[in-house]
Design a protein that fits this description.
about 55% helix, alpha/beta, disordered N terminus, four-stranded antiparallel beta sheet, about 350 residues
Length: about 350
């Protein structure tokens, strides 16, 4: 994994320091052995190290000649090494991989409450697409370099590494992240990552994929807030299209793929009210203000109520789920600055 500091690389720093030391030795040596001025001593040191073949400022005595031999034998290789390192660094500054890596690191250091997606397979791509539609900041941890090279662009930020290693999770900003989504195909890997991430960040919301029924409970016990089984969801959805096809088709047409075309939205108590004063659904009168209909309520304890009564009390920490046309949802977002 590439490491970058303010000097560009440890090798560049070492080469520059080595060059400076040799120049200082040359200047002091010519000043001492030939009684040159400081400028003349610097000039002689530079032409000696670079082997350009210019003549001496003044004839050298025997001591100065011996010192020159010593300086040539020690400095030519160092000078060539330093030039090669600097050239390599300048060229690498324009390397797309390094440029993208620096952009990713800059993003990680600047943001908080971002989402980390582990793995960019089928489920990882779907998660990334949804987050992009909602303008949510996220970073993808992927160990397959071929996948990164194929999908790397200005909108996707990849961190190359194995997420089962704590160092990679920390480098991805798991300490400041809001959510971690594990989409790896192997349940054992997801289990290990969930366990590690939960130890690093106790407040992190963790969503993990599971392929086997036996893994579901284990991943939950490891610290995952939600465990999704894609195969079970897919099979259930297909069967539902046989049993209640019109209902499922209607639900599929409820768009939740982006802010501009959304039909369903959740609103927290804190978004609706600046104070902790208790109010009811009837009092907020959302239907007349925005045209949206409240179809669900989640209490601060996590209990869900479908189609809540008008006298349902809204308390700090609660949320409501509303349904409406895109223009009504947009009005709702403007009303509550969501």
């Amino acid at each position: 994994m590439i490491k970058i500091d303010k000097w560009g690389s440890p090798k560049l720093f070492f080469a520059v320091i080595l060059l400076i030391v040799v120049v200082l030795i040359g200047v002091i040596g010519f000043r001492f052995f030939s009684n040159y001025t400081w400028v003349d001593a610097l000039y002689m040191t530079v032409i000696t190290m670079s082997t350009v073949g210019f003549g001496e400022v003044e004839p050298l005595n025997d001591n100065a000649k011996l010192f020159t031999v010593f300086l040539i034998s020690t400095s030519v290789a160092i000078f060539a090494y330093t030039v090669s390192v600097i050239t390599e660094y300048i060229v690498s500054k324009n390397d797309p991989k390094r440029v993208q890596y620096r952009k990713t690191q800059k993003m990680i250091h600047q943001i908080e409450n971002h989402i980390i997606i582990v793995g960019y397979g089928r489920n990882g791509k779907q998660a990334a697409a949804k987050l992009m539609a909602y303008d949510k900041p996220f970073i993808i941890i992927e160990k397959d370099e071929a996948v990164i090279e194929r999908y790397q662009n200005g909108n996707l930020f990849f961190l190359k590494g194995n997420a089962t290693e704590d160092e990679v999770l920390i480098e991805a900003g798991v300490k400041n992240a809001a959510c971690l989504i594990c989409t790896l195909p192997e349940d054992a890997d997801n289990l290990f990552i969930v366990l590690s991430a939960r130890q690093i960040n106790k407040k992190l919301k963790i969503i993990s994929r599971a392929s086997q029924d036996a893994s579901y409970k284990k991943i939950r016990l490891a610290g995952a807030d939600n465990v999704i089984m894609p195969d079970r969801i897919g099979g259930d959805h297909m069967a539902s299209l046989v049993v209640v096809p019109d209902l499922i088709e209607f639900l599929d047409n409820l768009s939740i793929v982006g802010k501009k075309s959304i039909n369903i939205e959740e609103v927290s108590f804190e978004d609706m009210f600046d104070t902790e004063k208790i109010q009811t659904i009837r009092q907020i009168d959302m239907r007349s203000k925005t045209g949206c209909t409240i179809i669900g309520y989640k209490s601060p304890e996590g209990d869900y109520i479908v189609n809540p009564e008008a006298d349902t009390v809204l308390r700090p920490g609660s949320k409501i789920v509303v349904l409406g046309r895109p223009e009504q949802i947009n009005l709702l977002n403007k009303e509550f600055n969501i």
